[in-house]
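Supplementary material to the annual report.
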Amino acid sequence: MNLNFLDFEQPIAELEAKIEELKLIGDDNEINISDEIARLEAKSKALTESIFSSLSAWQIAQLARHPRRPYTLDYIDAFFTDFEELHGDRAFADDAAIVGGLARLEGRPVMIIGHQKGRDTHEKVHRNFGMPRPEGYRKAMRLMEMAERFRLPILTFIDTPGAYPGVGAEERGQSEAIARNLLVMARLRTPVICTVIGEGGSGGALAIGIGDRLLMLQYSTYSVISPEGCASILWKSAAKAADAAEAMGITADRLSELELADRVIPEPLGGAHRDPELMAERLKTTLLEYLDQLDRVDTDTLLEYRMRRIANYGVFKEG
Amino acid sequence: MSWFEKLLPSKIRTEAGSKKKAVPEGLWSKCGSCGSVLYKAELERNLEVCPKCNFHMRIGARRRLEVFLDHGPQDEIGAELEPIDSLKFKDSKKYRDRILTAQKATGEKDALVAMKGRLKGQPVVAAAFEFGFMGGSMGSVVGERFARAARVSLTEGIPLISFSASGGARMQEAILSLMQMAKTSAALALLRERGIPYISVLTDPTTGGVSASLATLGDLNVAEPNALIGFAGPRVIEQTVRETLPEGFQRSEFLLDHGLIDMIVDRRELRDRLSAVLAMLTERTRPPVEAEEVKAEPSRRESAAPDDAPDPDGEGDA
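Predicted assembly:
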């Protein structure tokens, strides 16, 4: 089984393996292998298209968590320049699960804040699997307030299973750190564009997720609790995660229908990790478009719209 | 006097005769902490705090506001709002059915009750969570009621007090309930900008999305004794760190030790102490005229305040 492929992609994996095999045999054979390879490649593409045209919410959740999916620092490398990472909350520590700093996007200075997961085991532990502690959120707030002082737009990248549920995190006020960010972000006098690039895990995601625009990559998710967590509470079994994912409607398309996400950015065939460069290019173009748009809005109007947007969250009956 | 009445402490005995008929079922209640058998009427007079061990029992939203606010006219805020199952959510039960069951059990439309009333004469807005309604979970109605309560505070320039008792965001409203964290926090940001006090009273239990939004954003964060307060629930943390949690972890006293709350206040003292604090907080910023008249001109209040509050002791600058 090829680990680069998810369960539901195994038919594609088998085809790809065959193609690899044929390529190794090479041209020293009499029959024309390149024709056969081309035929299989076309078949693989068609198969991928067909599988990806009807993904379930749970399959998308797995794509959002794909171990090879591009993370915040990958996008920073791909299309920002002059990135200068800024560290620490000035009170306790520097949390590696959230990265932030100054950079330029097509020449214009911005503040970047994003969750960061690790690639190999060592880095995963260092980044705490992208689960911030209070100091991470407080660093984020410090950078956001700095951005406001220097009138820099803020770009956040959301990709976390959630805020870390640990003893130390509780002792240092995980709740308050998240709550404070929500309060501050609602009133920042500078444009804020939030993009969910992978997992939008509950309050831990929302804590850097309040702004003037919410963008989501096609196979990213955003939810109030993980499908597993929801399943174990409401279905009394984590094995019902797929049902929970479906019921909660955690996908980008669903959030777009609910008018919570402003834009769903299409991913390359097979997901962002299949063509990170193309994904980066699309993300960059979209961010520039919204930066231009928000640049033209004066700050008071910007805040008024943001507050109205937030005030409209929710569906109820007024009887 | 029967042999039984002779056994009763004198305080309870005098009441027992006259009030018997008013209590339809179950005269007695057992303390969930020390196990003492308590006379219900006595317990009620003690605001559902065990007279033997001081254990603060959970109380409903309406009862909470009734014992906190002055008797007299009160305006309920957002009573007309009702929850709907916009996502057609179904787990082992339909969300619609869960709503109906909860409404029947609690007599409430949803898990937050908000009132404009008075606290020792001072006009205030107070909101209380109903834990009996789906664990006090925050969905769209809770968020909207809280936001409206904050708006009344804002437009009338009167303090806001909330009593939280909630497991967090309501899963059945999925992403919509997550967004209520943003909505309630943003509403509080405006109070903060305008210098209107907000006191958050955290009661047992306050966790998850409610603790990570409105409940920890008070100018003062106050807790009742021994309330469970935290972001993640203790079971989740135990599973994550794979060790037994220390005694008292995530209780009010633990939070006070770690600098996360301002004070722990006994339920029976809340009215006195919070009204005194609010009086101090608002003394120098109070509007020059009756709050109702200032509504339309929020900015006037700020400029008028210094003139209105001359240094009473004439100390001035040293």
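The first helix of chain B runs from residue 3 to 7.
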